[in-house]
């Protein structure tokens, strides 16, 4: 497989009819009659170069917030991941050890995971299909803001009386992604080099509004200077690790990411994957 392919990457484009001072939003439920479901649109930009992460030796965790690691998946059949208890007993401990070894972390606290199973109809969504279970196609970054009361509450929840102690150490919030079967040739993940992102001009803050909660994400505007990577034929024994926050650098190395269509090069069963979010401490 060649070191560079061209593909379409989806970026945000603000609706020209929207007040430029209005914060972006998208409703993940049926909007009231006459109320827009969102105030921005997503545009697909073709012919974007996507480089082979395996052969990009200059891309390192310390400087780019992206790396690839291996773990033993010989006893990890795809159907096992449907069992939350099995994930906690088997997969997450294996991942914990992997992260400590690869990143040199002293400790790891995993706080969230999600399975995604691409529907045959995707990217067209049929009525009744769960939106959160599908690959995310637009370039985005989860917003990490450690000044908010909500996040302070999360830290209380995760660490309790130990919160002040653990927050005194250097830590990062990271994402870990792996396919449940491989080689993955169906809507693999793409990662944008964070050093190629203009943090002042390229990021658009959006509220993702669910019936009971709202989360903030950065959608990403197109910039021809962006440099994209992916892992060709990623195996189920390989995990992609990418940065979301660093206690020393903030979101300077937070990695925009999305799924993308390989087009004619794509093949295999519809993608199934697991993504995990964790604190790591040094």
UniProtKB/TrEMBL annotation:
InterPro entries: AsaB-like (IPR044053). The keyword Oxidoreductase applies. GO terms for molecular function: oxidoreductase activity. The keyword Repressor does not apply. Keywords: Oxidoreductase. Belongs to the asaB hydroxylase/desaturase family. This is Methyltransferase. The lineage of its organism: Eukaryota, Fungi, Dikarya, Ascomycota, Pezizomycotina.
């Amino acid at each position: 497989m060649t070191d560079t392919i061209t593909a379409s990457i989806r970026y945000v484009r603000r609706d020209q009819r929207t007040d430029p001072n209005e914060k972006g939003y998208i409703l993940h439920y049926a909007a009231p009659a006459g109320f827009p479901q969102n105030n921005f649109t997503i545009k697909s930009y073709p012919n974007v170069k996507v480089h082979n992460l395996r052969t990009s030796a200059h891309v390192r965790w310390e400087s780019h917030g992206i790396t690839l690691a291996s773990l033993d998946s010989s006893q990890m059949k795809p159907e096992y991941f449907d069992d939350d208890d099995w994930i906690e007993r088997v997969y997450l401990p294996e991942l914990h050890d992997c992260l400590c070894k690869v990143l040199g972390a002293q400790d790891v606290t995993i706080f969230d995971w999600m399975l995604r199973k691409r529907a045959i109809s995707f990217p067209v969504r049929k009525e009744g299909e769960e939106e959160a279970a599908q690959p995310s196609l637009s370039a985005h970054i989860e917003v990490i803001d450690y000044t908010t009361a909500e996040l302070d509450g999360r830290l209380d929840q995760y660490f309790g009386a130990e919160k002040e102690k653990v927050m005194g150490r250097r830590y990062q919030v990271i994402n870990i992604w792996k396919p449940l079967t491989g080689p993955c040739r169906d809507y693999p993940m793409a990662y944008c080099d964070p050093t190629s992102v203009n943090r002042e001009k390229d990021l658009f803050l959006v509220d993702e509004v669910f019936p009971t909660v709202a989360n903030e994400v950065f959608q990403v505007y197109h910039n021809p200077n962006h440099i994209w990577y992916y892992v060709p034929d990623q195996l189920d024994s390989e995990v992609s690790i990418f940065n979301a926050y660093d206690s020393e650098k903030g979101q300077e190395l937070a990695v925009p990411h999305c799924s993308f269509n390989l087009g004619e090069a794509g093949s295999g069963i519809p993608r199934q994957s697991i993504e995990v979010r964790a604190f790591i401490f040094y």
